[in-house]
Amino acid sequence: MQVIGIDYGNRNVGIAVGDTDIGIAVPLATFINISINDTVDYILIKADENASKVIIVGMPYTMSGKVGDQAKLVIDFIDALRSRTLLPVEIVDERLSTTEVEKIAQVQFSKKKTRKKKFSKKNSEIDSSAAAIILQSWLDSRIIMKNISKNY
């Protein structure tokens, strides 16, 4: 089954795609978040193009697990998304997903001695890679649950 993952941000939105049969998520695209409606339109187009059956959205809880200002914006986005599609929209805890991508990128960039451009949050790959981490987390949890249910 094809799935799509979303890293929703004030400025940028990252998208990743994955497959439950092979259990792998890959970055797809990053785009500028002009408005919730435009973002929902674009995501639904990408979900259709990729024959996605589920939409996974990262929820940026605070480090203490509470719903902060950014999470409230994501909740508004999820509400708008759910009102416009029949596809299931599931939520995944995304704490530290972007930070994880930034650390990976910094390590990779530091290995390249001839790298001219310094790493920055502006790199479009960051948001789509964060979406891939969010989606991979969801895929991994499905595999774990499947294995647990086989043992009981």
List descriptors.
alpha/beta, 24% strand, single chain, 152 residues, Nucleotidyltransferase, domain 5, five-stranded mixed β-sheet
Written description of the protein model:
This protein has 152 residues and is of the alpha/beta class. The protein has a single domain (2-151), classed as YqgF/RNase H-like domain (Nucleotidyltransferase, domain 5, 2-Layer Sandwich), CATH 3.30.420.140. 47% of the residues lie in helices and 24% in strands. It is built from 4 helices and 5 strands; from the N terminus they run E-E-E-H-E-H-E-H-H. Strand 1 (2-8) and strand 2 form a beta hairpin. Helix 1 (36-49) crosses helix 2 (69-84). The two termini are 25 Å apart. The relative contact order is 0.22. The model is unreliable at 113-121 (pLDDT under 50).
Q: Distance N terminus to C terminus?
A: 25 Å
Unreliable residue stretches: 113-121
Number of strands: 5
**CATH fold-level label:** Nucleotidyltransferase, domain 5
Mean pLDDT comes to: 85
Question: In oligomeric terms, what are we looking at?
Answer: single chain
What overall geometry do the principal axes of the alpha carbons give? Answer: globular
CATH architecture: 2-Layer Sandwich
Roughly what percent helix? 40-55%
In what range is the share of β-strand residues? 15-25%
Structural class: alpha/beta
Spatial ordering of strands, largest sheet: 3-2-1-4-5
CATH class: Alpha Beta
